[in-house]
Amino acid sequence: MQKRTTRELRRLFFAAPLLALLAGVSGCYKNLIPDEKDHLSNNMNYTTETFVATLGENNAFINVFNADYSTQPLTFTIENVRSGDKSPAPQLRALVDTRQWKTWYSGNEKSIQEIYDKTFTAKRPILDIRENSGEIIFWNVDSLTVPYGVYYFDVRVKNNGGERLFSNLILDLRRPHPFEPYTHDDITGIQKPLTSGGVVKAHDTRNVRDYMQRVLPKDSVDVFFVKTGNAANTVSFRFFNRDSSVIPLTVFDVQRWDSMYYYSPMANTQVEFGFNRRFDTDSTIVTYDIPNPFPVLTDVSGGLDMATVYFDFKRVNFGRQELGFVALKFAILEPGEWTIAVKFRQTPKFEDD
Questions:
Q1: Same domain as 138, residue 219
Q2: Are residues 104 and 231 in the same domain?
Q3: What domain of life (predicted)?
Q4: Is the N-terminal amide bond of 181 cis, ω within 30° of 0?
């Protein structure tokens, strides 16, 4: 037992200098390894150089910068904003009140106030950039603040490895879209041809028949957006026959007016349609309070978030029950009181056969 202990001590005695030598060598090699430097890739780029924005709404251009393998974080700044004639356009860098989210929109909020309570107001430049991602934002302003047209700007990207300037990026600023689908050209302001978007059509129909038992396709149902006031943010629905006579809402006899929902891709959930539902005295108009914009995330979704709603009915067609609907898909971006008027080009039959 004593011999083995002595032998182990002897090994440690001889090993100690070797370990110290190795530690010293390791320290020397560590000093020889250069410090890692930030890398700024020559292949970084904006995936688009033209940003088409619409006045009267927030415009967010996300995932538009490819950093390649550049060292993060990067720092982005906007410089040299100018008009189409290349003269300075400082109005685009003016600070305005913007709506920011302090927590996420779930789609399960129970009132408009609950939605608004999730936001706060902050001053930001009209033409804005996310400092570390390079995402471009054009905030909601009107044409009196910034006229529509083409503007140019540069973006400078930096890290400790260097910097790079992306010159002559284009902001193509278009006329406002009070609603979607919009029926006017957003450059000229002229209504589009009736055969090319000048009239909004129903999103879909099923088992809608006329008095000759012919199925009415969605293209035979016209949809009109009419702004009737500014006192509140509301949307009302009305339906009309071919001769413009009013269709009572009672024909949609299986419609659950207090349980209308639409799917929000941005929130990834079914969202309750509007609040405080009410009918007029003769049940030809139904009205809901809505937030602005509507749907809530439509102005930052690139047109992805729109409300698709179904108006359901049933009827007996020669002894066979048929379930039918008229579906509308839309967004409202301009505040105010809106009426959506749905007019059939052929008078539909809702009575039983």
A1: no
A2: no
A3: Bacteria
A4: yes
* 54: helix, strand or coil: strand
- Determine, yes or no, domain membership for 57: yes
* 18 and 109 both lie in a single domain: no
Say yes or no: 153 and 213 in one domain: no
Instruction: For residue 221, give the 3-state DSSP assignment.
Output: strand
Q: In terms of residue numbers, what domain contains 204?
A: 181-344
Say if 191 falls within a structural domain: yes
Predicted confidence pLDDT, tens digits, the chain (353 residues): 444 555 554 554 455 555 555 555 555 555 556 667 889 999 999 999 999 999 999 999 999 999 999 999 999 999 999 999 999 999 999 999 999 999 999 999 999 999 999 999 999 999 999 999 999 999 999 999 999 999 999 999 999 999 999 999 999 999 999 999 999 999 999 999 988 999 999 999 999 999 999 999 999 999 999 999 999 999 999 999 999 999 999 999 999 999 999 999 999 999 999 999 999 999 999 999 999 999 999 988 877 899 999 999 999 988 889 999 999 999 999 999 999 999 999 999 999 88
